[in-house]
Amino acid sequence: MSNEIRVPALGESITEATIAQWYKKPGDAVSVDEPLCELETDKVTIEVPAHVAGVLSEIIAKEGETVEVGALLASIGEGQGATTPAAVEAAPAPAPEPVSEAAPVAAPVAPSTPSTGTQGLSPAARRVVEEHGLAPEMIAGTGKDGRITKEDAVQAAQSGAATPSSAPAANAAVPLASQAVAVAGQEERVKMTRLRKTIASRLKESQNTAAQLTTFNEVDMSALMALRSEYKDLFEKKYGVRLGFMGFFVRACVTALREIPAVNAEISGDEIIYKKYVNMGVAVGTEKGLVVPVVRNVQDMGLAEIEQAIGNYGRKARDGQLAINDLQGGTFTISNGGVYGSLMSTPILNMPQSGILGMHKIQQRPMAVNGEVVVRPMMYLALSYDHRIVDGKEAVTFLVRVKECLETPERLLLDI
C-alpha cells in the first residue's frame, strides 16, 4: 500500500511551483510531519511534509521541475527504510567523491563546506550551517527524531564546537593546478529562482506601466532618537518588543496618507480606487531576494502592535515561513535601505500601489539651525510615486507631513 504526496494548495492565484530540493531520496525512512521537499513559488518557499510514516518509495517530480497544485510528487510505502535519522547521526555518511592527494583535482575545494551534506536540514537550519561552515554531524539535534533545529545550529555557531578543524589543512593541500583552473574560470552560471524571476519581471513591469517620479527631503532625527532612548527600556519591559524607528515611520505615513489619499490609491482600468484603510508593506531582504510582507489595517494599530507585527514578519521571512496571504493586499510600502548603509536611493513602485517611501542611513551632518552651524543626525527620505494619479504638490506635501511627524513626534500622539 502506498500513500501519495501531492502539491498542496499554494494560496490565492498561485497555481504552480518549482521543486527547489528534495530532503529525502527513495528508500529513506520518513516520519509523520517530516519535511520531504521544498517548493518555490513566485513569492515564498513551502515545505511539503509527510502525512504518514513509512518509506519514500518513489519520487515522481524531480528537482527543478514545475508542478501544478494537486500534481503527484512522490509516494510513501510501508516499512522502515534503508536508513533512519538515528543511523545517520551514529555513522556519518562518507563523502560521495573522495579526492586523494595523488589524483588530479578538477575544481578548488571550498574551505567552508561542511564535511557532511545538509540535505536533511530545514531551510533555516541549513542556512545557519552553510553561513558558518558548520559540520552537521558534530551538532546535537534536539528536534523530532534528532533533527537539527535552527536553534541547535545557532548555538553550535556561537560555541564554535561544530566548525571543521581540518578545513584549513584541506585547503592547503589543494594542488596549484586547481588554483590555476579557478583563475581561468571565474564564472558560474546559476539558474534564476522563481522568486528572482518574478522580482525581475514585476520591477520591469512597474517601470513600464507607471509614470514614476521621486521627490526627496531630509529629516532631523534628534527628537525621535532622544524619545526612543528615553523610553525604549520601559517600552520593551511593558510590551515585550524593542522600540525601533519603523513604528514611528509607519505612524507618520498613516498621518500623511490620511491627508493625501492619492498616495494610498491605485489605478484600475479608467478608475482610481481610493482606500480608506492602510495595509503597510514593509520590504524585507532575504537570502533569496526581496519580499514585502503586509501589516494590515495599521491605521488602527499602536506603536507596540506595529513593532510586534513587523518583528514577527521579519522572523518568518528569514526562516522562509511566510505564507502567500502575508504578501498580498498592500496599499503602500516602506523600504529601509539604511540598514545596509544606503545614503540615497530612488525606490521602485510595488505595483499596483502608487507610493513607496525609502528610508536611508542616519548620518551626522553639519546643519544651519537658528543661524548657527550644529551637527545633527540626519536621514534622507525618498518618495517614489505614480505621477498618473499623484501630483507633484501632493507628493511633496506627503513627504513634508512625514518629516514634520518625525521631527516633532508629539504630533503622532496628538494625531495632528
Number of domains as seen in the coordinates: 3
Order of helices and strands: EEEEEEEEHHHHHHEHHEEEEEEHEEEEHH
- CATH homologous superfamily of the largest domain, by name? Chloramphenicol acetyltransferase-like domain
CATH class of the largest domain: Alpha Beta
Distance between the termini: 68 Å
Low-confidence stretches: 83-116, 166-174
Oligomer kind: single chain
Rounded Rg: 26 Å
Strand content: 15-25%
| Number of DSSP helical runs | 11
* Helical/strand content category: alpha+beta
CATH topology of the largest domain: Chloramphenicol Acetyltransferase
- Compute the number of strand runs: 19
Determine the fraction of residues in helical runs and give it as a percent range.
25-40%
Please summarize the sheet with the most strands: 7 strands, mixed
What average pLDDT do the residues reach? 82
| Overall outline | globular
CATH architecture identity of the largest domain: 2-Layer Sandwich
Keywords:
416 residues; alpha+beta; OB fold (Dihydrolipoamide Acetyltransferase, E2P); Dihydrolipoamide Transferase; Chloramphenicol Acetyltransferase; 3 domains; 7-stranded mixed β-sheet; 4-stranded antiparallel β-sheet; 19 strands; 24% strand; globular
Describe the structure.
It is built from 11 helices and 19 strands. It is an alpha+beta fold and 416 residues long. It folds into 3 domains: 83 residues, Beta Barrel (OB fold (Dihydrolipoamide Acetyltransferase, E2P)), CATH 2.40.50; 53 residues, Irregular (Dihydrolipoamide Transferase); 220 residues, Chloramphenicol acetyltransferase-like domain (Chloramphenicol Acetyltransferase, 2-Layer Sandwich), CATH 3.30.559. It starts with a strand and ends with a helix.
